[in-house]
Each structure stands twice: as C-alpha cells, then as structure tokens.
Amino acid sequence: MMKKYVFFFLTLLSACKTNPYKATNRDYKKQSRQYARVIDQTPLDAGVDSIPPAPYWVGTTNFNLRKPNFIIIHHTAQNSCPQTLQTFTMTRTQVSAHYVICKDGTVYHMLNDYLRAWQAGVSKWGNVTDVNSISIGIELDNNGFESFPDAQIGSLLRLLTKLKSTYNIPAANFIGHGDIAPTRKDDPNAAFPWRQLADKGFGLWYGDTTGVCVPQGFSSLTALRLVGYDIRDSSAAALAFKRHFEQDTTRSWGLQDEKILYTLYRQYQ
Question: Which of 35, 113, 119, 202 is most solvent-facing, going by the fewest CB within 10 Å?
Fold first, then answer.
C-alpha cells in the first residue's frame, strides 16, 4: 500500500511541474508552421522565369525530405545543462543544436532532425562547406575541461544507434566540431572517448600500428585533406587530428602520428 502512495505522490509531483520554456516552445511551433507554409507553396508561379510562360504548373510526385548525413559532436563550453538550454532558446545568441545531453544522461531533443540547426558555424569537411545543412548537432554538457560521465556517454550511444539506423549515416561521418573547424574549436575535448564510439560503429579507428610501414613519399598534409580536414592551417588540422585520434593536445608530429594517420587514411579511400 505504501508503494502505491509513493508512486501516486511522485506522479502527482511530476504532473505539477511547470515548463519554463513554454514561451519559446510556442515560438518553435510558430516558426515550424511558417516553414510548413513555405513548403506548401507552388514552387513556381505561372510565367515567372519562363520564356515563353509555362501554360500550367506541374508538380513532381517523386520527392521526400532531405536527410542528415553527418553527426557533429560538441561540448557546450558552459557550466550546466540549464545554462545551455537557456542559451539555445535566446534569439540573440544565434546558436542551437538538435540535441543536448546532460551529465546525468537526460536528453533534450530541441529541434526536428530534418531542420537546420545553427551549430557548425564556419566549417569545412572535405568539399562540404555548409555542414549545418547536412548534419545533426549533438551538444554534451561539459565546460571543455571535464571528462564525460558514463551516464552521458550511455545516452549518447543510444541516441547515435537510433540516428545511424534512421538515417543510414556512414561510420566515417561521426565527427567532432573541432574536426570541421580546427582553427576555431576544440570540442569535444581530448577526454572524449572516440575509440569507444568507433567500437560501436560511430566513427573510424585504427588497430595496432607496431608493424605499420609508412611508404616513402607519404604526405601527411594530403592524407589529412583526404580524411576530411581543412589544411589551410596545417598545424591546426594536425592538432585536431591528434586530439580526436590520440587524445593528445601537443603540437609535435612524429613517426607514431604518421603511422596512425596512414592507417586511417587508407580506410577513408
């Protein structure tokens, strides 16, 4: 009987919680409706940009929604989940993400996956210069100098499993903000467990490099570029690579770095 009373009390307490983001949620729905009206418009009015004018509009029946093809992982560089949620709901900040994962594993899904979040900023990966348009952004509550708790990584792995399955995202396309913007960003920080993700199919990794022989003429810069890094600032690109694949933030570059890069470069071909 006591358990029933406790369950009833907790249910009542949960029901009484007020959502502090009611106003911004209304704004979200308002903007969604506005975009829905844009999508519903006839793509081209008769006579516009057509000489001679088309006699009538013809709409194709073969289309669907654009789908994300990359996952970009960030740390929030803020001090708490509530602080980040507030930042992402203030118009003046001009920054957002699809998901925020708190240290205790709570996941806030802030934006429909098919919509374009403002999370990647000025960035580049391979030939892609508008990363926002083809990616989902995931922010992890972390000030940039902390490790990532097991509960947080557990929620991240469950989310990535769902996203990879839903959108058929290639393993190589799970990357960090610091990878796509090496001169500006360093997130997620060097404590992030990229290998743990790669073991689950979220990102590529390398094996034992003891017997790896880097061929003569191998160009580290060319390999970094082919992996995806923007090499206009070569030292920043190399540092981003080491932070991701070696959890190393030093700017030195030696034979072991070459071996790891060579092993990974061959996987990206």
Answer: 35
Residue type, 108: Y
Tokens of 119: 């999370």
Distance (Å, whole) CA 149 – CA 236: 28
Q: Which helix (H) or strand (E) holds 28?
A: helix 22-40
CB 225 within 8 Å of CB 231: yes
For residues 130 and 137, give the distance between their C-alpha atoms in angstroms, rounded to a whole number: 13
153-to-101, 106, 130, 194 alpha-carbon distances in Å: 9, 11, 27, 11
pLDDT in tens, 145-159: 999 999 999 999 999
* 3-state SS track over 56-107: CCCCCCCCCCCCCCEEEEEECCCCCHHHHHHHCCCHHHCCCCCEEECCCCCE
Burial 243-268 (b: 16+ CB within 10 A, else e): bbbbeeeeeebeeebbbbbbbbbeee
Burial class (CB within 10 angstroms; exposed 0-12, middle 13-18, buried 19+) of 107: middle
pTM of the model: 0.90
| 65-205: CATH class | alpha beta
Domain ranges of the chain: 65-205, 206-269
Which structure tokens are listed for 233?
Answer: 């600032």
What's the token pair of residue 13? Answer: 């307490």
Phi, then psi, of 244 in degrees rounded to 5? -75, -50
Q: Which of 139, 146, 246, 258 is catalytic?
A: 139
* SS3 at position 9: helix
Active site residue 146: no
64-86 tens-digit pLDDT: 888 999 999 999 999 999 999 99
Contacting residues for 196 by C-beta, under 8 A, at least 6 apart: 153, 157
Residue with token string 């006839």:
42
